[in-house]
């Protein structure tokens, strides 16, 4: 019975030793093996591994890109005006041994990231005026982010950290300054709108004047054409009259006119006295003959 108990104890102790010596590394993590607070090995590939029981301990760290959102902070621009800036950073533990030696924990890394990003953003914003930032007349936010990213990466490089990107998530004004800036922006937009309206009115007047000019030209040409047609009509009328008073047509025309005069003269009971050389007398003589 005692032998069974001893065997069970030995088996249990062996199982405890086996379990304490085994550890699993999953995807996306580092496992650092420490012996007497000194890192003796680091595993970064997924799988089952063994360590010395009781004397070795393990520390797990993320082996992936980490997105860390920083608290919004106030910074001063070049012209000593407040801006509220909100950033995020994408970083990665590239050297776990150096990271553990210099920092040790993720929380401490975040504290140092906060300080590095804040100081860099504050110094960079201090070279820009608030008006240029609000009106986005910079070379571009991308250039600003690039400068900040490079400087933060330089400051954190000694901690086994790789910085991939530092971005502005939100750039705003302090609440007490918002109304003033908004009114100024509204005023600027109204000036631009007024300029557009003035340019539009100028173009409209230009088009209207051109149309009026074309209308006057068309009317003048129409009047000239009408006068030309009237002149041609009068010329034709004169030609017809001229033809009527020449040659055989002249004699016929005179005959018709004489008949019309005789008709008017002989209406009713009248005595008509005519000179011998009157055209009407001539035709009466022709009738008698």
TrEMBL record:
SUPFAM superfamilies: Band 7/SPFH domain
Domain of life: Bacteria
Family matches, as SMART domains: PHB (SM00244)
Matching InterPro entries: Band_7 (IPR001107), Band_7/SPFH_dom_sf (IPR036013), HflC (IPR010200)
Cellular compartments annotated: Membrane
Band domain segment(s): 20-185
Predominant localisation class: membrane
Keyword Protease applies: yes
Gene Ontology molecular functions: peptidase activity
Gene Ontology CC annotations of this record: membrane
GO biological process: proteolysis
Alphabetic keyword roster: Hydrolase, Membrane, Protease, Transmembrane, Transmembrane helix
Purpose: HflC and HflK could regulate a protease.
Protein family: Belongs to the band 7/mec-2 family. HflC subfamily.
UniProt protein name: Protein HflC
The organism's taxonomic lineage, starting at the top: Bacteria, Bacillati, Bacillota, Clostridia, Eubacteriales
